[in-house]
Automatic annotation (TrEMBL):
Coiled-coil residue spans: none
InterPro entries: CoA_activase_DUF2229, Dehydratase_Activator_Redct
Cross-referenced PANTHER family: BIFUNCTIONAL PROTEIN [INCLUDES 2-HYDROXYACYL-COA DEHYDRATASE (N-TER) AND ITS ACTIVATOR DOMAIN (C_TERM), BIFUNCTIONAL PROTEIN [INCLUDES 2-HYDROXYACYL-COA DEHYDRATASE (N-TER) AND ITS ACTIVATOR DOMAIN (C_TERM)-RELATED
Protein name in UniProt: DUF2229 domain-containing protein
Domain DUF2229, chain residue ranges per copy: 17-234
Biological source species: Slackia faecicanis
């Protein structure tokens, strides 16, 4: 049983944990919340993204950082006086060809140095399954011990997080398939001239892009305002998508890009169009987006890049034009 001293349990006195609503929050939030709550801690989530938060984060970042990283710093800043410590994990990989972008691996150091003058207190862990053999389970069991948890309590907290994440992923998969089946059913039931609302658009973007109100929100809102069904590639069956991505590349290292590409390959014949959204200047996306466009086949694809300087009007206009073209095409306006 770990003793609750400063060396073995440095986080024992932390009662509230801040979670920045950015980056991998959009993938692991259910697990993180359940884990810390099982340890008896209060979880404080930063507010929804807004322009002021982005501006604050940009002011603390170098120009070369991607939009999502700049926004993350804004979220961290918003939590400085709202909790005892901020949770910033280091995520390297979940195994071979299951790597994360290097910014996730370096994130604790970036945050610590960025907020050095504020003496920010970080709670962190390192997930590096390929080299150090530190799996997600190992990392979080060790983290629980640093909060003063017994081995039994640590296992229970990790299980609570894993169950919460599995439940959230299952709900997302079921909702995704239900929505897609609804569109396909509507196509069969409606007459051609009444088929506008049966369009299904797959949004292929990192979850912190597609589900963030500031980055991907304007694109998603524009699509929904056009009356189409929006499907998020990151909510598709991840295991199936990852396996399918092998047909695209046998060596691509990035896990999330693999899942997005695999989802696109599985669904391109079932959707009416694909909207790929990137946060400028995302390194992995810059190497995969062009290849994705070439593999989209006959499925129309709109590629959008969002940066800190662009407004929403141009994005909305491009989305509206894309949907108008798809509807005109559906009615025979273009050669198939």
């Amino acid at each position: 049983m770990p003793t609750q001293n400063k060396d073995s349990a440095p986080y024992a006195d932390v009662r509230s944990i801040g979670l920045p609503r950015a980056l991998m929050y959009y993938r692991y939030a259910p697990a993180w919340k359940a884990f810390f709550e099982a340890l008896g801690r209060e979880v404080v989530v930063s507010r929804q993204s807004d322009r002021a938060m982005l501006e604050r984060g940009s002011a603390r970042s170098v120009d070369e950082c991607c939009l999502a990283s700049k926004l993350y710093m804004g979220h961290v800043e918003s939590l400085l006086d709202a909790c005892d410590a901020v949770f910033v994990p280091s995520l390297a990989n979940l195994g071979r060809f299951k790597s994360f972008c290097t910014k996730y691996q370096a994130l604790p150091d970036l945050v610590r140095n960025t907020f050095d003058e504020e003496s920010i207190r970080l709670v962190s862990c390192v997930v590096e399954d390929q080299q150090s053999k530190t799996s997600m389970r190992t990392a979080f069991l060790d983290l629980a011990a640093q909060f003063g948890a017994t081995p039994k309590e640590a296992k229970a907290a990790y299980k609570a997080g894993r169950v919460a994440l599995e439940r959230a992923e299952k709900d997302a998969r079921e909702s995704f398939e239900k929505a897609l089946q609804g569109v396909e059913r509507a196509r069969k039931e409606r007459r051609d001239e009444d088929a506008d609302e049966s369009l299904a658009i797959l949004v292929a973007a990192h979850p912190y892009v597609s589900h963030d109100r500031l980055i991907g929100g304007p694109v998603v809102d524009a699509l929904r305002d056009m009356g189409v069904t929006v499907l998020f590639a990151d909510e598709f069956d991840r295991e199936r998508a990852y396996k399918e991505s092998g047909k695209f590349s046998s060596t691509m290292p990035w896990l999330i890009n693999r899942e997005l590409i695999g989802a696109m390959l599985c669904l391109r014949e079932r959707v009416d169009g694909i909207v790929a959204v990137s946060a400028f200047p995302c390194g992995p996306d810059s190497m995969t987006n062009d290849a994705i466009a070439r593999r989209a086949g006959n499925t129309p694809l709109l590629s959008l890049t969002v940066d800190a300087q662009s407004g929403t009007a141009g994005l909305e206009t491009r989305v509206e034009s894309f949907i108008d073209i798809l509807r005109y095409r559906r009615k025979g306006g273009y050669l198939q």
